[in-house]
């Protein structure tokens, strides 16, 4: 065995992180359709499933690079054609990584919309953030593909051409990606802390949304790993970056799914001997422009969709307080 072969870093990072992601997504789907209060599948569920599929594609490309293209071995020990093939796979995996990150972020945004979409202002913020995520995804794809002139110069340095500083580009991408994660993590916090909940309940709900902090920590490790990247030895010096990138994406999927598993846990709890169903947290939902729905609501059609349950987080909306039933119809008092 080659003592300088560190491909096992990629194997270890990918396998140990993608297995939990592969397990938690089907559990999420089951929880959404067979939990204590089945709600059916919506956009955020399908987006996270797409992210998982893309994550497996990324893993397949990395594994193929190890087996066929000498990933984990110094470039000086490989033929020129092998290094060229690796660079092609590296360019491909970049696009898959960008897509995976965008899908996961959009899934979180749609989850927020499903829970807090009753606020028009918050909905506008969500769509603006989603537009930013998609725009940044397109920019990253274009820069990574057309960062070399001609494009083929990325994998064939024998011809005349030039490239941007790839290490600096990916380091910058990692920083911006992490800042987007922090932004998305912070989005629901003002909504949560304006709710009429006890301090412990607010902290608990904040903790649920704060699970993505783990992704930010892994993103920092990925950024640090870029410091060891060398464009002259890509098959060896990008291994740790690949490892942390794979862990980052898989952990992102897991953290996105965890808040949606509560219905399944309640269903399991209900069947445990001597157990009683936990009391859900009452959610005094915030209305349009942040006004509490305990105030007399407007009778516009847009207000009739305000009562969307948030069972995943244990938040329960009281229809009697808002003046609407669970179907969004106004309660007539006689």
TrEMBL record:
Domain spans labelled Rhodopsin: 27-265
Stretches that traverse the bilayer: 6-25, 46-67, 92-112, 124-155, 175-193, 205-227
UniProt keyword Transmembrane present: yes
Disordered as annotated region, ranges: 282-334
Family: Belongs to the SAT4 family.
Gene Ontology cellular component annotations, sorted alphabetically: membrane
Main location: membrane
Stored InterPro entries: Rhodopsin_dom_fungi, SAT4-like
Feature: compositional bias, Basic and acidic residues: 324-334
Species, as recorded: Gnomoniopsis smithogilvyi
UniProt keyword list: Membrane, Transmembrane, Transmembrane helix
Bias (Polar residues): 307-322
Domain of life: Eukaryota
PANTHER family reported in the protein's UniProt record: INTEGRAL MEMBRANE PROTEIN-RELATED, PTH11-LIKE INTEGRAL MEMBRANE PROTEIN (AFU_ORTHOLOGUE AFUA_5G11245)
Location relative to the cell: Membrane
Protein name stated in the entry: Rhodopsin domain-containing protein
Membrane-protein topology: Multi-pass membrane protein
């Amino acid at each position: 065995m080659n003592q300088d072969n560190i491909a096992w870093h990629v194997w270890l990072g990918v396998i140990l992180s993608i297995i939990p992601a592969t397990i938690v997504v089907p559990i999420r789907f089951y929880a959404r359709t067979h939990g204590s209060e089945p709600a059916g599948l919506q956009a955020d569920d399908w987006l996270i499933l797409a992210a998982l599929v893309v994550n497996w594609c990324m893993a397949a490309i990395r594994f193929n690079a190890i087996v066929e293209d000498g990933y984990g071995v110094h470039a000086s020990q490989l033929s020129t054609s092998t290094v060229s093939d690796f660079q092609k796979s590296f360019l491909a995996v970049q696009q898959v990584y960008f897509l995976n990150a965008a899908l996961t972020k959009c899934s979180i945004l749609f989850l927020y919309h499903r829970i807090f979409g009753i606020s028009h202002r918050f909905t506008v913020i969500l769509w603006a953030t989603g537009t930013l995520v998609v725009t940044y995804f397109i920019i990253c794809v274009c820069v990574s593909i057309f960062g070399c002139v001609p494009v083929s110069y990325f994998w064939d340095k024998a011809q005349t051409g030039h490239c941007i500083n790839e290490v600096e580009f990916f380091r910058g991408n990692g920083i911006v990606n992490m800042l987007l994660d922090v932004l998305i993590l912070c989005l629901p916090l003002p909504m949560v802390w304006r709710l009429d909940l006890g301090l412990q309940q607010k902290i608990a709900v904040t903790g649920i949304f704060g699970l993505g902090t783990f992704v930010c920590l892994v993103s920092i490790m990925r950024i640090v790993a870029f410091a060891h990247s060398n464009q002259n030895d890509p098959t060896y010096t990008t291994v740790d970056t690949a490892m942390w990138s794979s862990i980052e994406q898989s952990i992102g999927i897991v953290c996105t799914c965890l808040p949606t598993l509560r219905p399944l846990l309640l269903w399991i709890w209900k069947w445990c001997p001597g157990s009683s169903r936990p009391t859900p947290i009452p959610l005094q939902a915030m209305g349009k422009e942040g006004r509490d729905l305990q105030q007399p609501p407007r009778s516009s059609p847009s207000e009739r969709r305000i009562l969307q349950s948030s069972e995943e987080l244990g938040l329960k909306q009281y229809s009697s307080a808002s003046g609407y039933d669970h179907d969004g119809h106004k309660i007539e008092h006689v």
